Amino acid sequence: MLIDSHCHLDFPELNADLAGVLSRMRDNGVTHALTISTTLETFPAVRAVAHAHANVWCSAGVHPDVRRDGREATFEELVEMGSDARVVALGETGLDYYRVEGDTGLQRERFRTHIRAARSLGKPLVIHTRNAAEDTLRLMREEGAGEVGGVMHCFTESWEVAQGAMEQGFHISFSGIVTFKNAKDLKEVARRVPLERMLVETDSPYLAPVPHRGKPNQPAFVKHVAEEIAALRGIAFEEVARATTDNFFRLFRHARPA
Ligand SMILES: [Zn+2]
Ligand SMILES: [Zn+2]
Description:
By secondary structure, this protein is of the alpha/beta class. It has helices at 12-15, 18-27, 43-52, 75-82, 105-121, 133-142, 159-167, 184-192, 222-233, 237-251, and strands at residues 2-7, 30-35, 56-60, 87-96, 125-130, 150-152, 171-174, 198-200. 50% of the residues are buried. The structure holds zinc ion (ZN) (2 copies).
């Protein structure tokens, strides 16, 4: 049993052959997946995948770097989206200062609204952070994100940032990046994060792990992430699979295996 805790099954690269994607998951022992919402407009498609497949759950939220020229998702809207029975988390939310020029105030406001909605629903958060670790941890503290907990997804930050998130009760999720040869610091973080705080993910269709690097990613490939972590820690693959699966169902407690 192995779970992909973060993928985007509504994206065309995966959605065009969803049946094939799901059957390759099964063939590779990947039993469940969490498909992640990124925009208001595509949320119905994300939710539809989770309603159509008993082994897929979804999140509700708007990605930090989605530009909004018109209407921004309100607290009430996020609570309404998040109250669906197949929605087990709010996000992906957070801060991404990588490509942004100028004012990042909208991102911070959006992030705060997601944390408030998550607390109101009692559902955990899926947090994305890039070039913004300090502000991310600060807003999590200011808004009391620790009350619902969650996961720092596709983690690429330092051990200190991992500690800062874990102190607030958060889990750390590793993606295919941990298999990249040049990811030395991240491999060290993957050695140090306690197994009971760890999740694995693909963030597919992006970031295919070694040995599929450069090709479209898919949930079945999460096994390469778990294999790499097992090798780094000198433990059995099964131990990583068991721990990350237990963690998934403990954290996303609204997900019940069928
Ligand atoms: Zn992300
Ligand atoms: Zn994502």
